[in-house]
Amino acid sequence: MHHISVLALEGCEGGCVTGAIDLLNAANTVWRQQAGKTARPLFEWSLVTPDGGPVSTATGFQLSADASLAEIDRPDAMLIGSIHFYDAGQLLAAAHDAAPILRPLTAIRDAGCLLAASCTATVLLAEAGLLDGRRATTSWWIQEAFAYRYPRVRLVAEDMVVEDQGVVTGGASTAYMSVMLNLIRRFAGDELALFCAKVLLVDTNRHSQAPYSYLESGIRVRDPLVTRAQAWMQTHLREAFTFEQLAGILAVSPRTLIRRFRQTTGYNPAEYLTRLRIDEAKRLLERTNLPLEAVAERVGYRDPSSLRRIFRRTTHLSPSEFRKRFSIADDPGII
């Protein structure tokens, strides 16, 4: 029997913590249906808190612990539950404050325990140094702040789930389900994991966060030059311009603009402009029934085929596929 621990911190996302355990319970139920009711369960679990005491979820529900971090006895895997933050700056500060209580995770990992986390909990692993030198993903809306704060992590932000050297990371919020299916697959096989996904209606082909992501709003840009450049690009999306022209408008050299832009955002100005244009194209595809030619013109592409190519490269979906999946437009006049 495989023992999986779920670590819950104060202010955790209750759905992630209890939902992870629900997935393990579902795996046991499916297994018994296949192997017989007398079959031994494949999984057992424990709810762990830093000191063994109860914690409250972000919505006020209280969770009772089975053990403290110091008391758990060599679990096969541990999922760190995500914590409730939607501001990157506050999240990073909270992770820094939580670092001392997460120190036992290093010894737990060194003892052979597989560590797993998704969404905001990936920041906790990074703050503890457990992602240094590893490939990892995180929630799309904190990827720029994450990359800036943790440069030693090999961030693969588009991926929904990444496993590297005994650590599994997942993307935003409900990606914990994909992370748990990864653990079920590892310990119980592909067939059982797939059947659990079907029973629970989890899309196993959801490999990328790219269709869901927009440029992060949580990071605070403190460079006034970059702020001015961002504002100018946002209001001139339709126009063709060079970055030499933009640098001239801002009264700096192109080299200075590129250097300070990359230092602040993680992108060079051309990459950032492409993200802005694709984000606006997403918004138009979601909220209007404009034809692709009109969408392309509004975001600065004279040729719809160019938008189609760059859109697919960025989101892993064609514009028509994206519109089918995310459209909320009933009226072509909605903007």
UniProtKB/TrEMBL annotation:
Record InterPro entries: Class_I_gatase-like (IPR029062), DJ-1/PfpI (IPR002818), Homeodomain-like_sf (IPR009057), HTH_AraC (IPR018060)
GO molecular function term, any single one: sequence-specific DNA binding
PROSITE patterns in the record: HTH_ARAC_FAMILY_2
SMART domains attached to this UniProt entry: HTH_ARAC
Segments forming a coiled coil: none
Keywords: DNA-binding, Transcription, Transcription regulation
Domain of life: Bacteria
Pfam families attached to this UniProt entry: DJ-1_PfpI, HTH_18
Sequence ranges assigned to domain HTH araC/xylS-type in this UniProt record: 227-325
Name of the featured protein: Transcriptional regulator GlxA family with amidase domain
Source species of the chain: Thiohalophilus thiocyanatoxydans
